[in-house]
């Protein structure tokens, strides 16, 4: 999300975009059936402002909540949440186990295979792509680049947790 903020001209909001991306699934593990519903209350209890709550909760639009993504950041999160899962699933079965050598063609092949990463909703990805007014290829390419930008940092953090 930080990469997208910088890429789309919201460089001054990179931290906010990053926090929304980091916290967007804060209620998913404990309340999967109330995902994006419980988050609002948890965030309010923690003193979060309305922009953060809206930014996080709207990625469940049409699934668990009726909070529509409005800001470009919210539309990006809505579109890339499912897509990044699909891209990561495609990456971990590659010999490199990385997005660093991932190409659009490889992701599109996996995207078309409905049984691959079946939990990643193509419908949500396509709705998000339409919200942004982008072509699917652009969203995939940009998301690969975004994931490349932080893969090493994420891997290092995961190693520390292991």
Give structural notes.
The protein has about 160 residues and is an all-alpha fold. It has one domain (about 1-160). The protein is built from 8 helices and no strands. It has helices spanning about 1-5, 15-25, 40-45, 50-55, 70-90, 105-110, 120-130, 135-160. The longest helix is centred in the C-terminal third of the chain and has 26 residues, at about 135-160. The two termini are about 25 Å apart. The model has no long low-confidence stretch (mean pLDDT about 95).
Quickly describe the structure.
The chain has 162 residues and is mostly helical. It is 61% helix and 0% strand.
Portion of residues in helices? 55-70%
- The counted number of beta strands is 0
Taking the sheet with the most strands, its summary is:
none
Order of helices and strands: HHHHHHHH
Average pLDDT figure:
95
Give the overall shape.
globular
Q: How large a portion of the residues is in β-strands, by DSSP E?
A: under 5%
The total of helices stands at 8
Span from first to last CA? 25 Å
Summed up, the domain count is 1
Give the helix/strand class.
mainly alpha
């Amino acid at each position: 999300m930080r990469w997208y903020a910088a890429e789309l001209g919201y460089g001054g909001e990179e931290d906010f975009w990053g926090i929304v991306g980091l916290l967007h699934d804060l209620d998913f593990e404990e309340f999967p059936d109330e995902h994006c519903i419980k988050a609002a209350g948890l965030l309010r209890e923690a003193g979060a402002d309305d922009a953060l709550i809206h930014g996080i909760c709207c990625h469940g639009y049409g699934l668990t909540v009726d909070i529509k993504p409005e800001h470009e950041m919210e539309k990006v999160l809505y579109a890339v949440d499912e897509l990044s899962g699909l891209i990561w699933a495609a990456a971990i079965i590659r010999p490199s186990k990385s997005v660093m050598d991932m190409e659009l063609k490889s992701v599109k092949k996996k995207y078309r295979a409905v049984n691959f990463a079946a939990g990643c909703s193509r419908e949500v990805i396509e709705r998000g792509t339409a919200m942004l007014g982008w072509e699917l290829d652009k969203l995939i390419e940009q998301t690969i680049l975004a994931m490349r930008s932080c893969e090493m940092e994420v891997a290092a953090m995961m190693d520390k947790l292991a």
